[in-house]
Amino acid sequence: MLIGPWVSDRVQRLKDARTEAVKEIDALKAQKNVEYKAYEAEASIPCAMLINHSGETDQSLAQTQQQTEQSIAEIRKAFAENKDTVIAKLLDSVVNVQPTVHQNAKV
Q1: Checking CA distances to 97, which of 39, 60, 71, 107 falls within 20 to 30 Å?
Q2: How far apart are alpha carbons 21 and 72 in whole angstroms?
Q3: Does the entry feature the keyword Ion transport, yes or no (predicted)?
Q4: Positive/negative CA dihedral, 20, 21, 27, 30
Q5: Distances from the Cα of 92 to the Cα of 7, 79, 100, 101, angstroms
């Protein structure tokens, strides 16, 4: 039969292509792993003005932290100033209930 050798050649070429693809994928994975390790090592170097990979500097990070602390202090101050008033309004609403009939209720 004449078809047999062509089919086996085709099957062999497919197997060879698969093994080559696996080798290329493994090589690419190894290369990307090395690049990732280098990236990780570079990002963990402590330095006062080192620009990290997100584009921010340590200085801007410190500035943001300071602004956050200021905002929290303002919120706490407003809470302390308005706490008694809010509690009084809540208690007034709960204690002095004025029942009314809903506008959609049919009497």
Answers
A1: 107
A2: 56
A3: yes
A4: negative
A5: 90, 19, 17, 20
| Residue 24 dihedral angles phi and psi, to the nearest 5° | -65, -40
- Give residue 26's domain range: 12-45
φ, ψ of residue 54 in degrees (nearest 5) = -85, -5
Helices then strands (H, E): number in the chain? 2, 0
Q: Report pLDDT digits (tens) over 65-92.
A: 999 999 999 999 999 999 999 999 999 9
Can you tell me whether residue 58 is helix, strand or coil?
helix
Q: For residue 24, is it within any domain?
A: yes
pLDDT digits (tens, 9 = 90+) for 24-45: 999 999 999 999 988 887 776 6
> In whole angstroms, how large is the CA radius of gyration of the chain?
35
